[in-house]
Design a protein that fits this description.
The protein is α+β, with helices and mostly antiparallel strands and 253 residues long. 17% of the residues lie in helices and 41% in strands.
């Protein structure tokens, strides 16, 4: 994790699902992850690690009273760094976002909040306390890229530029922009109207062999939606887990 992440930089991801034991076993077999229950004080939130590296978090889809909530879809949520979560949260609502979870303290670790952006994508905020976020060694089983697949590209660029201080940098002729330029880019915004009906954030996880990992996904009850295919950024596969949450597999070029 960078010692000094910029405003709006992805610094955390977490996963929500229903069949917790079977679905987390799926990820353990795909990526070699371990899930560590943080206990009742943290609502049995699990920290995900790979060989001692902190990847993200995972939890069951629950109501605030701890009972299961079948209406919450299985999903990965991306959290963006902010120095002043109250100000950014208020700015987001003023810019048309819908509230999901207002800013709240997570013990001494920091503060979190979740919104739905104006195009319908859920996204979190994280203001660090004792904890700044995940580790990103860019090794197999760890997150390597984060992008918003949006159905309203111009509105998304405007929203994230205004609310999260994205340094919007267009990439070539295709409607894709990054937060920062070149090697300094930390996240992307993609015009996904051709492929998606709803907006969402997705994470790319590095693997040693994208084809083998894709085969393992289907063997364990997930699905391959696109790929494997080569790109300038490596061999890419779009997949879902057994509960339908989507993510990307990325093999280095």
């Amino acid at each position: 994790m960078p010692a000094d992440p910029r405003e709006g930089q992805p610094v955390w991801i977490d996963y929500t699902c229903h069949e917790f034991e079977s679905t987390t076993n799926f990820y353990s077999q795909i990526f070699g992850w371990e899930f560590n229950d943080q206990g009742s004080d943290f609502g049995h939130y699990n920290m995900i690690t790979k060989d001692g590296v902190t990847i993200g978090g995972a939890m069951r889809a629950l109501n605030m009273d701890g009972t299961p909530n079948p209406m919450i879809p299985a999903t990965w949520t991306t959290y963006l760094h902010t120095e002043d979560i109250s100000d950014v949260y208020a700015k987001a609502l003023e810019a048309g976002a819908a509230p999901v979870a207002e800013p709240m303290a997570v013990g001494p670790l920091g503060q979190m909040a979740v919104i739905t952006d104006p195009a319908g994508a859920g996204v979190g905020m994280w203001q660090p306390g004792e904890f700044s976020g995940f580790d990103t060694p860019l090794t197999p089983g760890t997150p390597v890229w984060f992008e918003l697949m949006t159905v309203n590209y111009s509105a998304a660029n405007e929203f994230y530029g205004h609310v999260f201080s994205f340094e919007i940098t267009p990439m070539g002729d295709f409607p894709y922009s990054t937060h920062g330029a070149g090697d300094d880019a930390v996240a992307g915004i993609c015009d996904a109207r051709e492929w998606a009906q709803v907006s969402f954030w997705r994470t790319y996880f590095n693997v040693e062999d994208a084809d083998a990992a894709a085969s393992k996904v289907t063997e364990l009850g997930g699905k391959v939606l696109a790929g494997p295919e080569d790109s300038p950024y490596g061999r890419i596969v779009t997949v879902t887990d057994p509960e339908g949450a989507t993510f990307q597999l990325q093999q280095d070029p």
